[in-house]
Amino acid sequence: MLAREKELDVLYEKVFEEKILGNLSEERFLKLSGKYEEEQFELKAQIKHMKKVVAEEKAHELNADGFLKIVRKYSEVEELTLDILHEFIEKIIIYHREEIMGETIQKIEIYYKMIGHIEIPHITKTEHQSLIRNFGRKKEERIA
To answer: What is the mean pLDDT of residues 50-54?
Structure first.
């Protein structure tokens, strides 16, 4: 893209020179220069967009690295403390409870610092109860 943008500058200059030298009619000059200007305008917009995407990806990568440092810091946590939560969690959104097909559902969104919201797949009631029973237990203490 950058190479084409520079190439368009050169082409535009050549067209302008040909016009000045009298080798190109006004009508042809306007048509060619308009075409080059339009393409260059589109390229500049694409380049600006691509630079923004690259910057966002770099920022996301840095944020993910920062988040992983926190994860490594607390890899052997025995007890969840308020300090640990503050280091990991940016915000929590809790929605109103709903009754769906005889089951009470309450959506909760957790936004982690540096990485934002992560969509966690839906778990069944049995899986949820197992998670609650085993929360905080060591592997050898877990209940089936």
So the answer is: 86
Compute the CA torsion angle 5, 9, 11, 14 (nearest 10 deg): -170
**Residue 95 pLDDT grade (very low, low, confident, very high; cuts 50, 70, 90):** very high
Distance CA 124, CA 135 (A): 16
Mode of pairing for the β-strands spanning 116-117 and 89-100: unpaired
Its pTM stands at 0.41
Alpha-carbon distance values, 16 to 33, 35, 85, 91, 130 (Å): 8, 13, 65, 58, 76
Rounded to whole angstroms, how far apart are CA atoms 120 and 29? 59
Q: What are the residues whose beta carbons fall under 8 Å from the beta carbon of 131, sequence distance 6 or more?
A: 123
In Å, how far from its chain's centre is CA 142? 37
How far, CA to CA in Å, does 28 sit from each of 21, 41, 48, 107?
14, 20, 30, 63
Mention every residue, 6+ apart, whose C-beta is less than 8 A from residue 26.
Answer: 19
Could you read off the pLDDT of 108-128 as tens digits, one per residue?
Answer: 898 888 777 777 777 776 776
